[in-house]
Amino acid sequence: MKINLVEGDITVEEVDVVVNAANSSLLGGGGVDGAIHRRGGPAILAECRALRASRYGRGLPTGQAVATTAGDLPARWVVHTVGPVWSADDYRSGLLRDCYTNSLAVADELGATSIAFPLISAGVYGWPVEDAVRQALSVLRAATPTHLTEARLVLFGADTHATAERVYAAG
């Protein structure tokens, strides 16, 4: 699977799957989550509400992933995953890696060939950018999906992109 680092807005990526750094309610919020819901329109929210009414009455657990329509986004599906909140006192890197692993598995089950990830947990959840990139790349580099041939890590802002490029080059 080819890995591309892209600076930009994940809501304009033309891929099969866009990954949403969701909150556990699945009902929208700020940051990437809010942008995906706004740009994708009411169809995404309707499917998220249906998921809450059926399988995820208490919300989507951290590290898990679930798919919905992409609505008006230039993608086929949105895979929602809930990242962990950063804590210097509690090791949560495994949960962060689970977000990527489980999102890849859901996308592969859908038959997707391309996927775009935001930098999960690196926004309001406070994960240090360099380590967030390292965690994401560790999963993406080790992945052996059946259908997926391209994974994009979509980075918001020049500084975040530059950090990702440096971490990527370091291997």
From TrEMBL:
* InterPro entries referenced in this protein's UniProt entry, alphabetically: Macro_dom, Macro_dom-like
- Which ranges does the record mark as transmembrane? none
Which Pfam families does this UniProt record tie to the protein? Answer: Macro
- The stretch of residues making up the signal peptide is none
- Chain ranges of the Macro domain: 1-171
Protein name (Swiss-Prot/TrEMBL): O-acetyl-ADP-ribose deacetylase
Species per Swiss-Prot/TrEMBL record: Micromonospora endophytica
